[in-house]
Amino acid sequence: MRECISIHVGQAGVQIGNACWELYCLEHGIHPNGVMPSDKSVGGGDDSFNTFFSETGGGKHVPRAVFVDLEPTVVDEVRQGAYRRLFHPEQLITGKEDAANNYARGHYTIGKEIVDLVVDRIRKLADQCTG
């Protein structure tokens, strides 16, 4: 089986990612809390959702995704939005301040503070994949 990990970076990436995950849930019949109704569960034929979602022991489907932004406002919208219970809190990573539209500031100073955390979270998601 093929498994995909989505990485959403920056304001635009996070906003587009949030919209995409909402559509994935609607397409596959997964509720905003990550639960799939029993009439659509495994054995019903189509398990293509497993490409993008991993299933917990409790039957909840969690996206294989990481959301990253140096400034917390946009990721906080995901944390407080309609699909807030879909994502694991470790997958929503923010810094304390933005780079003020300055590439060097984001790359060399502020971004360096969270890059190890981001790589670690991506590694954890990759380790959970079977393919």
UniProtKB/TrEMBL annotation:
Belongs to the tubulin family. Residues 3-130 form the Tubulin/FtsZ GTPase domain. This is Tubulin/FtsZ GTPase domain-containing protein. SUPFAM superfamilies: Tubulin nucleotide-binding domain-like. One of its GO terms (biological process) is microtubule-based process. Pfam families: Tubulin. The keyword Iron does not apply. GO terms for cellular component: microtubule. Keywords: GTP-binding, Hydrolase, Microtubule, Nucleotide-binding. The lineage of its organism: Eukaryota, Metazoa, Spiralia, Lophotrochozoa, Mollusca. One of its GO terms (molecular function) is GTP binding. It catalyses: GTP + H2O = GDP + phosphate + H(+). It comes from Arion vulgaris.
